[in-house]
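User: I'll paste a sequence; please echo it back and then give the predicted structure.

Assistant: Echoing your sequence first, then the prediction.
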Amino acid sequence: MIAWTARKIAFRHRRLRLGYRGSAFLALVGFLGIGGPVWGADLSQAVVRQKVNVVTLAPNLTGAARPAAEGTVIQDENVVRTGTDSRAELAFADLTLARLGSNSIFSFDAEARAMNFTRGAVLFSKPTNSGAVQLRSGAISGAITGSTGFISTVPLEGVGKPGQTRSNGKGTTTLVGMLEGKIQGGSRWTDSAGREHTTSFRLGPGEMLVARPDGPPRQFQFDIPRFIKTSPLVKGFKAPLPNAAAIDRAVAAYEDDERRGFIERSNVMVSTKPRHMALVGTVLPLDVVAQQNQNPGGFLPVGSTGIIRAQLIWNTAADLDLYLTLPNGQVISFGNVAVTFNNGRAVARLDRDNRGDRIDLPPNTRVENIVVNGIPLSGLYTFIVNNFSSPNASDSFTLRVFYNGQLQVITGNLAGGQNSQPVVVQVPRP
């Protein structure tokens, strides 16, 4: 029954596929569904509420800087910089906070209600009753209404994308993560052919996005309790964060999810090699631990990892497709590459698609890859392979599916139009 349903889905989406292939990722159409700015209290100026070591103020990015003492007023488009081993807390009239780490550059646009993070690490905290604020940093732009999170931005410095050639070193690597609340926005990037894309994203507590201008962003989880206990952006300031109650609830939810087996503690290694994601140390001047599943052997270095991961591998010019049916009935495939579900707490994404006309790894390997990240719904996650078209009588394939320390592998041969047997993952109920 599952195979027959998937076949219907494959042919129903095939006409859409011709228009979908080669198109850009989802365009950013707005922030949080807001048609225009929601004005709250005044965001035209801020005050340096606390400073440690070197903090300077300039009228703009090119203007001469002068020392900024506690109590200094920051006006629209002024630029605040911090030195090595320095930090500053800026408080706005609407109670929004911006805590700057070492070697950071920060400014704001009062008319657009936007904060600009040019370099370094910043923790932002905003009450829920003071209107929307836009956040801009590197390739990322987004909006918050009542949230606490952090942004870290550093130069690319020539580090290439995982599994690809080195970049030209232009632009920045930007990470945005949420302690509580949510952010929704878009990440701009350019592919190897020079085509520009915008990938939309939505993050909740414990989720972070790594974005670069030379490739699509990647989403991970991070350890909220450890961040709260160790980050100098939390521990290095006198005043408590204004959204402390919401942060406490997010910590409790994280620890509950960890007890239920939805989160595995594993640090992402720091490396400047192209095949590694550098998420801490020089790239992130924050004490952040990424929660990235360490999948067992057999997965090729194509696509990303997740709480649940499936990878289809074949070696012919056939057009094979990987499908995932979620517990709520939604289907992930070439016709629907990304779905946010479980009330925004999880996302499923086909992050590597292949029509058989592209070799992902020499000499002749093709790959499709689906990942689920966040806190997935309980229920059944069903993966199948469909052979849409092929010049051959049949084509061999391998499908690997990983969840909660268990790896399922099936191999077989499919003629044109045939579907594989399903591989099912069951996520337990709370």
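The domain at 45-259 is CATH 2.60.120.1440 (Jelly Rolls). Residues 2-20 form the longest helix (19 residues).
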